[in-house]
Amino acid sequence: MSNSKDVVKPFDSEHDYEGGLAVIDKDAIKNPGMEPHRERMTDKSEKHEKAAARQVTALFVFSMIASAFSIYAYFAFPLSNITMGQVRLSTLLIGAGISFGMLAIGIGAVHWAKTLMVDNEVSEARHQTRGSEEVRARAVEIINLANQESGFSRRKLIRRTLYGAIALFPLPGIVLFADLGPLGSNVEEKLRHTAWAKGTRLAKDPYGTPIKASDVTIGSVFHVIPETLRERNDDGTLNSEYLNEKAKAAVLLVRVEPSVLNPSPGREKWAYDGIVAYSKICTHVGCPVALYEQHTHHLLCPCHQSTFDLANECAVIFGPASRPLPQLPIAVDSEGYLVAQSDFNEPVGPSFWER
Ligand code: FES
Q1: How far apart are CA 317 and CA 304, in angstroms?
Q2: Exposure check for the chain: N or C terminus, fewer CB within 10 A?
Q3: Cβ distance 273 to 213 under 8 Å?
C-alpha cells in the first residue's frame, strides 16, 4: 500500500478492498482552503465603524440599566403587606431585568466581534497540550495582536461599559440571596422557634381545620400546621411570614397502637393515646418527610431516603440524616381537640446547629 493511501471500514461499492478493508486515496480529497475574506461595511467606512461602536456601547449601557432595574424592582415591592398579584409582578420585573441585562451583554459582545474586531480567519495545526517556549511566546504575541485588533485597549468607552455591565450583572443575584434566610436582629431566635406554642390546636394543612383526637384512626397520617397560622391578615393582605412559618412548623401526625411506642424517660406524656406528632422537615437538608409505612412504622424522606423509626422517637435507621426528627409534645383540650404542649424542644430542620 502506498503512503498516500489508508484503510477504512466497512464494505461499499466505491472502494477497492485489501484483506477485507477498503482502500481510499487521500489525494482524491482536496483541501478546500479558506473562504475568501469579505469586507464589511465597518472595514470600508469610518462612519459605519463609529455607528457600530455606539451600538455596542449602547447595548452595554442598556445591560447596566437592566441590572440596576432588577435591583430596584426587588426593593420596590417589600414583602410586607404584599398581594399575590404584586408578588407575580415583582418576580416578573426582577426576571426581566436580569434577562435583559444578560441578553444585552451577549448581543453587545457578538455585535462587537462581528462588526469591529478584525475578522481574518486563522488556521493552526494541532500541537502538544503544552507548547514549547517559542509557542508560548507566540501565544503571548497572538494575545497582544488580538488585543490590538479587537481594540480592547484602544476603545476605552466600550471596554469600560463592558466592565460596568459585567460588574453590575451579578448584583441582582447577590441581592436575591437576602431571601434565603431571615434578616435583621434575632436571626437565631427566628430560626430556633416555630409557630407552635402551648395550647395551639393542631390543624389540617392547608385548610386549617382543627383535629380531634377521635378523628385520628390507627394507621392514618395527617399533614398538620398550627391553627393560629393564617395565610391572610385580618385586612385581607397576605401574611408575609406565612410561608416561612409554615416551612418551620409543618408536622406529621400519626396514630399507632400505644404499645408500639418506646418513649425515653421524660417523654412518656408527649404522645396522646398512640397519637404522635413529629416535625415534617428532614434533618438532613430539609425536604418534607412525607411517606409513612404502616407495617414497619417507618417515615421515609423521598429526597435521599433517610428513614426514621416512629416507634423509637423517629431515630434515624437509614440514610444521611444525622439526628431524629424533633417531636412536638401534644395533648387534648377540654373539647377533645389535639393541642401542642409547647414549641419543639429543639430546632427543626437540617442539623447545622450542633456544628
Ligand atoms: S433531605 Fe431527607 S434525606 Fe436528604
Answers
A1: 13
A2: C
A3: yes
Which ligand 1 atom minimizes the distance to the CA of 350?
1
Q: What is the pLDDT of residue 24?
A: 58
Q: Is the pLDDT of residue 18 over 90?
A: no
Q: Is the Cβ atom of 319 under 6 angstroms away from ligand 1?
A: yes
The CATH number of the domain covering residues in 188-340 = 2.102.10.10
Query: 105 alpha carbon to ligand 1 midpoint, in Å?
Result: 39
Mutate to test the pocket of ligand 1, among 281, 284, 316 (most ligand atoms within 8 A of CB): 284
For 307, the 3-state DSSP assignment is strand
- 304: Cβ below 6 Å to ligand 1? yes
Which contacts (CB < 8 Å, 24+ apart) does range 207-216 have?
A: 210/337, 210/338, 211/253, 211/337, 211/338, 212/332, 212/335, 212/336, 212/337, 212/338, 213/272, 213/273, 213/275, 213/332, 213/336, 213/337, 213/338, 214/336, 216/253, 216/255, 216/275, 216/338
- Rounded distance from Cα 318 to ligand 1 centre (Å): 11
Pairing of strands 291-293, 298-300: antiparallel
d(C-alpha 290, C-alpha 299), whole Å: 7
CATH 2.102.10.10, the chain: domain bounds: 188-340
Please indicate, yes or no, whether the overall pTM of this predicted structure exceeds 0.85.
no
Angle at the Cα of 187 from the Cα atoms of 329 and 251, rounded to 5 degrees = 25
pLDDT, tens digit (0-9, with 9 covering 90-100), for 106-139 = 999 999 999 999 877 777 777 667 778 888 999 9
Report pLDDT digits (tens) over 224-282: 999 999 888 888 777 878 888 898 999 999 999 999 999 999 999 999 999 999 999 99
